[in-house]
Predict the 3D structure of the following.
Amino acid sequence: MDRRMCQMRISTGGVSLAMLCSAAGLLSLCGCNTDPVWEPRQKVSRPPVTSFTNPDGVSVPDITITGAQEVDLVEQVLMYRASYHRSLSVLRDYYRDSGHDAKRTWAEAELSDLSKVKPYRYILADEVPPGRLEPQDSIAEADALYEIGVSLMKEGGHNVPFLYRDKKMRKALAAFREVIERFPTSDKIDDAAFYCGEIHKEYFDGEAPLAVRWYERAFLWDPETPHPARFQAATVYDLRLHDRDRALELYRGVLEFESENAANVNIAVRRIGELTSDDAPPRSAFAEPVGTTSDR
């Protein structure tokens, strides 16, 4: 009796061992990682973190802003921002060369997270040419370059959001800027400026202040520009920048200089009424129309 029981146990154990070996073989044939099957589960330690504003063991000096100009503060931000990235890169390389793999991965992860932060420029004056240009000459090379910009903008999905292609749109912006920079007397500079504004307004987050500067250049360079530059600038000042006085000024400019677009005129009249009324809310919920016109 005992012998039979012993034989049964041995037989059962043999079957179990065979099944285990077969399973392991199948896992290997399938290309699966079998390490978790044979090795005990290990705890993954998280890297230690510190505070951005008050890091442990470091004395952060105060920043003096008394008497400082905007350019001074922005330059300081740009300098420290670049130093942060460079210092972190040097630290990563140090850990790599020293064989500290865990800390190297921490530095790489921090650099990866840092790449997702938008480094705003803040100083915009140098981004837009001065308002003294005059579009007076018909220049074939400028016309051709402008048409390249228009074509790239269409290929980038202008007014068709689901076809948007960032690289094409950025190339279009570069082409329009080149028209203005290389041919400042071309009769296409106001057109190019308007489309620079459109690109910054519609496709680049956080660049509304830059968009309105381009719109303003379009009608400063050519007060009779065929594009609704005043209207587009007015809606940005109104709905995004919340500058009531400038929005009102530009809406009134729409009535005087851009009256051929009835839809825009109706919106301008309504917003003037709402912005000057004590009872009405400061903003009106309406979709910002894309008031582009046909190219020259």
